[in-house]
Amino acid sequence: ERVGEGNPEQATLFSFQQQSRAAAPVSSDEAQSAKLELLTVHPVGHPVIIAYLTEERHIPLELTRRYLNEVTYRNTENGREYFAFGMENESGGYEIRVASSKLSFKSALKARDISVVRGTAPERGMVNVFEGMTDFLSLLAMMKLDNLAGDSVILHSLTSFPRAAEHLRSEDYRVINTFLDNDLAGEDGTEKF
Asked: What are the DSSP calls for 25-67, one per residue?
């Protein structure tokens, strides 16, 4: 039996804490994303990203390299180039996050969408829903796994609920495990699912 998956007694062991989401004042995700241009995508190698994920977030390098990419992008307003780690989404875009515990900048490049990681079980009766990519990787690290038996859907933002609900309905899952933040928005999201 895998700890935490389908086991309500283990659910209290894995608790997400509310984190500050503001990195800079922006009117909306869509407006910010429109100012960002994807430049390159390659395997994670930058020491700042590796240190943040392995030392601060305690996510093994193998998991980082399996699920994430290093992404460089340009802010078209100021012409500056930046780097972040990111996960490809279902629309072929990238959900990105800066590798810093002081800044919590997150955005989408090309298109905002959910990411789906297929599970190891032959039948797809169970799905695990995560608010963010680091939440997904933190659970894998905690459980010492490289994937979950059931499929995983990473929202990247609670605003992706309609798209996630559409995906869940299309797959006809029987069990939905939610791993959302412990705040009012996360509780509301769990109730909706």
From this structure: --S-HHHHHHTEEEEEEE----HHHHHIIIIIS---HHHHHHH
Q: Is the pLDDT of residue 2 over 50?
A: no
pLDDT digits (tens, 9 = 90+) for 94-143: 999 999 988 888 999 998 999 999 999 867 689 999 999 999 999 999 99
Name the pTM for this structure. 0.80
The torsion angle over the Cα atoms of residues 99, 103, 104 and 110, rounded to 10 degrees, is -70
Residue 130 β-bridge partners = 154, 179
Instruction: Please report where in the chains the tokens 């309905």 appear, as a residue.
Output: 169
Looking at residue 24, its pLDDT comes to 29
CA angle at 143 for the pair 139 and 144, rounded to the nearest 5°: 110
Q: How big is the CA angle at 153 (ends 152 and 155), to the nearest 5 degrees? A: 150
Q: Which residues of 111-145 are buried (b: 16+ CB within 10 A; e: fewer)?
A: ebbbbbbebeeeeebbbbbbbbbbbbbbbbbebeb
